[in-house]
Amino acid sequence: MEVVCPIDAQFAHEISLLLEPPSPLQVQEYFDQLATTKHFDGIQVKPTNDYGKGVYADMDFEEEDLVLKDQMLVGMQHSSNKIDCLVCGCCFRFIGSIEIQIGRKLYLQGLGSPKDDSFNEKLELLMHEKLELPHSKKFPLPGVINCPGGCKEVYYCSKSCAQADWDFCHSLLCTGEGSKSLSNKALSKFIQHANETNDIFILAAKAISCTILKYRKLKAACDKEKQKEKEKNHLSHVHNFSLLLKGWEPLSMGYKRRWWDCIALPDDVDVSDEASFRMQIKHLAFESLELLKAAILDEECLPLFSLEIYGNIIGMYELNNLDLVVASPVEDYFLYIDDLLEAEKKEVDETTQPFLDALGEHYSVCCQGTAFYPIQSCMNHSCSPNAKAFKREEDKDGQATILACKPITKGQEVTISYIDEDLELEERRALLADYGFICKCARCVEEEAAQN
Ligand SMILES: C[S@@+](CC[C@H](N)C(=O)[O-])C[C@H]1O[C@@H](n2cnc3c(N)ncnc32)[C@H](O)[C@@H]1O
């Protein structure tokens, strides 16, 4: 059965304006401004000859050179990863201490020992930083800052990160006493539904919240101006919509398709059932959107709550997402202990080994999530790419790091591979079909010609 969302019919014109791909001039202006505020140089975003926009080198890069550090626009740690890693809800750096990271994970996973009271006591001490592990000070982490709204779901590495996230989106999505949502109960229901079905809905909610908050900020500034001019008339509906468009601008730059149209067909779904599978996905998105509306609906931003926009935001993540990965300092810590000289290692192991044993093989799980990066998401695919997303030792937060994997000369397009490029032509094509295109890079053309 088709789902009907009245907002889609009521705001069809506004929705089409929000979803219109930006003109080359808008793209140019937006990325030029981003280059100035984020201080990146060496690359440019501009139209390609064949498929929308792309990223081009503005200087020469040697192999392994850093091409770009891209700060995410909206990102999230996967809900399932929150037990394993305590990270800043804004920059995704690990926080607390080695002791908190280990103690918290063991405690939350119930990995204490039912038979060993002395181990459990130590675990309790570790959790509360009353037991210091040997050499842990060599791996210092920023302290834990609570959410200003009082929820116990998100923590930060600094007051500035806490404030930045609050202003950016968390004030609407916080379940604490200071929340600016319409109802904490409705918000908790939305979050629970996302955690039980697909946590990509939380990312979409963040994208909508940050647009609403940006709109409110723009409107407040505009109202102030009007006040100054002693104009008593309220801003017209049309004017409000232009502010909403401005608030939406960063997301308008992302390549979009509706989630239910672009999501890959799972292996266990037969092609003959494709239409019904896509309809189920659409229903799921509708269910989630209704819960989100009960939590944060803003009457002045109604088009944002249409199913069309919701589906396109989620689709944008599906098509542009780069995994958010931050390596765990717990791994570095245990590697360091393992490398100690034999005599000292024996002594230290007495304290550390029981914890390592309790953690088991997953002792060093990374922070894992999904994020939208404004510039990396403009990079087109090649099966013979000249760049790759790769975190170096010093990259300790959620920014995307793009390194050259071949020399790149000024003017050349910077490309990455969306898939495992070591696969055969047919396998690569099958995977790229999920992104909705057939690759025509030089390697594909050559390999295809060789087959014929
Ligand atoms: C992450 S976006 C890349 C930026 C995109 N060109 C834009 O204008 O925003 C991915 C989309 O770009 C297009 N694309 C990327 N690489 C391509 C390629 N090698 N051949 C054809 N289309 C490609 C596809 O439409 C793909 O779904």
Q: Any overview of this molecule?
A:
Its EC number is 2.1.1.354. This protein is α+β, with helices and mostly antiparallel strands. Among the domains are: 203 residues, no CATH class; 112 residues, Beta-clip-like, CATH 2.170.270. Helix content is 47%, strand content 11%. A 4-stranded mixed beta sheet has the order 1-2-12-9. A 3-stranded antiparallel beta sheet has the order 3-11-10, with no helix packed on it. The protein is globular, with a radius of gyration of 24 Å. The model has no long low-confidence stretch (mean pLDDT 91). The site of S-adenosylmethionine (SAM) has 18 residues, from strand 2, helix 12 and strand 9.
Got a strand count?
A: 12
Could you describe the largest sheet, including whether it forms a barrel? 4 strands, mixed
What overall geometry do the principal axes of the alpha carbons give?
globular
Q: Order of strands across the widest beta sheet?
A: 1-2-12-9
Helix/strand order, N-terminal first: HHHEEEEHHEEHHHHHHHEHHEEEEEHH
Give the CA-CA distance, first to last residue: 45 Å
Please state the CA-atom Rg, rounded to the nearest Å.
24 Å
Strand content: 5-15%
Helix content: 40-55%
**In DSSP terms, counting alpha (H) and pi (I) runs of 4 or more, how many helices?**
16
Q: How would you state the average pLDDT, rounded?
A: 91
Small molecules held by this entry:
S-adenosylmethionine
Contiguous low-pLDDT stretches (5 residues minimum) are none
